[in-house]
Amino acid sequence: MTRITSATPVTHYETLYESPLGQMLLVANGDALTGVYFSHQKYFPQDGDVRRDGDGVAVLTAAKQQLDEYFHDGRRLFELDLAPEGTPFQMSVWDELRRIPFGETRSYGDLAHALGDANKSRAVGAANGRNPITIIVPCHRVIGADGTLTGYASGVERKLALLSLEGAALSPVKGASAATTRHTRLSAPANLAFDF
């Protein structure tokens, strides 16, 4: 598997962001965002990764502002330079994720079909799970073909909250029947509250 990497080491900068869904780590290479992670999510950057204080790094400041606008003011589109690191296939999946409009969902099969191979749903799912730039590259908008909320590296509760924030949690799933969608939608547990 080929990874897209730089020949010379890249200095990364980090800052923390307090979201309504928990603390997030934002990482940039100085010019572009390379990672947005909820704390303790699967595939969180390793402690050994070298990162410097990112206070004052323009792209990190802009990311914080745009995330605030997303959570509190209805921002629908992020306008940030992105530089995720991954294999060519992962990059193609992440590019396709960015094409899913705010408030809509797609299945893994939909993404595989859009990428030209309907048989790669599982590979799409694996690449989706490895997305290093959560929310901004909206992997939370991908659900099961039957309309169920499948896994999410940051937790299904957060996925549900993000889809609810976007008004997508109760909308029909492309390709799923209304009866299936109605029957399989999840609701937030009674003890789960989000202050958007």
Automatic annotation (TrEMBL):
It comes from Pandoraea capi. It is found in: Cytoplasm. Residues 13-83 form the Methylguanine DNA methyltransferase ribonuclease-like domain. It comes from the Bacteria. One of its GO terms (molecular function) is methyltransferase activity. InterPro entries: MethylDNA_cys_MeTrfase_AS, MethylDNA_cys_MeTrfase_DNA-bd, MethylDNA_cys_MeTrfase_DNAb, MethylG_MeTrfase_N, MGMT, MGMT_N_sf, WH-like_DNA-bd_sf. GO terms for biological process: methylation. Its main location: cytoplasm. Keywords: Cytoplasm, DNA damage, DNA repair, Methyltransferase, Transferase. This is Methylated-DNA--protein-cysteine methyltransferase. It is an enzyme of class 2 (transferase).
